[in-house]
Every structure is written in C-alpha cells, then in structure tokens.
From TrEMBL:
InterPro entries: AB_hydrolase_1, AB_hydrolase_fold, AB_hydrolase_sf, Epox_hydrolase-like. Gene3D superfamilies: alpha/beta hydrolase (3.40.50.1820). One of its GO terms (molecular function) is hydrolase activity. It comes from Devosia yakushimensis. Keywords: Hydrolase. Residues 26-259 form the AB hydrolase-1 domain. This is Hydrolase. Pfam families: Abhydrolase_6 (PF12697). It comes from the Bacteria.
Length: 281
C-alpha cells in the first residue's frame, strides 16, 4: 500500500496532499514547523489497520502553493473534506494542526468522530515561559529580525525537535534531517498576509465533546505542558498522557510510540469494525 497524491484548487491556492487506505477517515494536520511528511509513519500504520489516512500541506507549507489572498485554514479544511467526500473523520493534529482541529470541532462538531491533539495550539490560549525558554525565544527573534533563515531553522530545531530546555542536537539522524527540510521549505515560502483571524477557542474547549486523546512530550515548552493539563481537566471526554523523553514532534522522534497510542485510541472508538463495514458495503 502506497501513498496516493492529490491536488485541490481552493481559491487561488493549489493544496497538495496524500491519502492511503480505505475505511473511515483519519485526517492528519501538521505542525507549524513541519508539513504533511511528519505523519508518514502514522499514515502507514492507520491505513494498515483499516482506516483511510489523509494529510495535506496547508497554505504556506510543503508542496502547496498559494497567492496572497484572504483565506481561513478552517474553510480550507472543510473544502478538502468536501472534495474528498469525507463527511466525518478522526482528526490528528500537532501544534498548530491541533489548534485547527479544535477550531473545526467547535464550528462543525457533527463531522468529528474523535480528536488526537499533540502539544496542541488553542486559538486564544495564554503563553508563559521559563527563563531558559525565554533565552531561546530571544535567539529565534534575533534570527528572524536578521532574516537569517538558516540560523532560524537551527534555532527552531532546538526549540521544537530537541526541546527548549535540553542540549541542542538531542535528536539526530533521519528525524533531524526531515525536520530541517520541512521547516526550511516553510521558511522559504512567500509570507501570506491575509489570513483571517479565527475566534477565541480557549474559553470554549469544554464544549468539545468528541472522544479526545491528548498527548504532550515532557521536553516540550512549559506552556504547552500546562495547556495539556488544563485541557485534560476541561474537555469532558479526554484521555491525557505525557510522553517521557520527547519534545514537540513525537511523530518523527518516536513514531512507534505515537503509532501504538494512536491505534489503541482508534480501536477504542470503533476501528475494529472498519473491515467488516467495508465488506458489507
């Protein structure tokens, strides 16, 4: 089973994605320092388990190309689902991808079978930082102001792949090469200045009733660990777990761990019946 590419024209953008497998849909939404490739291992795992895996590059990332026009990522996500004939799905989002999943769940809860949120963003949520974390944030800001995209990529690899409180280079090999390539591509894209502001979701997270798996790495930013704890208390059908020894992008750092937890969650919300449903159809 191999990934099948697709392209969708939405407004003046060409969104590029991949899909694999058959059954109920699992839609993967990438982090803001990655693209759809961060989910390759997970897509293979869920497709092999009888699900329809889908991932795409949002505007400003990966292979997607877009002119600078007014847009909203939630509208784009809805358009992708409609184009692929997906009425409802499980949404797996990391960081900004998780924030998008939450916003979509609040706007259209009937299309949500379940959520998996990893180190998730939430529109309107607060941000705090330790002194060490502020130092690396300052290095990031300095590289950005100097337009030193190579340095910015390295700093962001330290922040998000290694973790802000540990030694830079903690994660090496193929995972680091992939991160640097994905983020370099995003940093090279033209700036999109007309993204529409999305409404505050932070005060409404208790309204998200879908079964939800919340994951965060213990080496992630302190604010994201605190947010994880808040969501685990506020979201009525959430199960929360802290992943030891990983930071913000566990899908490429520890794919086997993420795969096992994702598949267990999918089984719990109905994955075991997918093959039987397909045979009946």
């Amino acid at each position: 089973m191999s990934l099948e590419p697709f392209e969708l024209d939405i407004g003046r953008a060409k969104l590029v994605g991949v899909e694999m497998g058959e059954g109920l849909a699992v839609v993967f939404l990438h982090a803001g320092v990655c693209d759809k490739r961060m989910w390759s291992e997970q897509m293979q795992a869920v497709a092999d388990a009888g699900w329809h895996a889908v991932a795409y590059d949002r505007r400003g990332y990966g292979e997607t190309v877009s002119e600078d026009e007014a847009f909203n990522h939630v509208d784009d996500l809805e358009a992708v689902l409609d184009a692929l004939g997906i009425h409802a799905a499980v949404f797996v989002g990391c960081s900004m991808g998780g924030g998008l999943a939450v916003d979509f769940a609040l706007r259209d809860p009937g299309r949500i079978i379940g959520l998996v949120l990893i180190g998730t963003s939430v529109t309107g949520s607060p941000w705090t930082a330790t002194d060490v974390e502020r130092m690396i944030e300052a290095a990031e800001e300095d590289a950005y102001e100097r337009h030193d995209w190579e340095m910015l990529n390295r700093v962001q690899a330290h922040e998000w792949l290694d973790g802000p409180r540990v030694q830079s280079g903690r994660v090496g090999g193929a995972a680091r090469e992939l991160f640097l390539d994905m983020n370099a591509l995003a940093l090279s894209k033209p700036v999109l200045t007309q993204e529409e502001e999305r409404p505050d979701a932070w005060r409404r997270v208790a309204e998200v009733n879908a079964p939800t798996l919340l994951l965060v790495g213990d080496e992630d930013f302190t604010a994201l660990i605190e947010r994880h704890e808040h969501l685990s208390e506020e979201m009525p059908n959430a199960f929360a777990a802290v992943l030891e020894g990983v930071a913000h992008i566990p899908s490429i750092e520890r794919p086997e761990l993420v795969n096992s937890m994702l598949l267990e969650f999918l089984d719990a919300i109905g994955g075991e019946g997918n093959d039987e449903e397909d045979e009946e159809e």
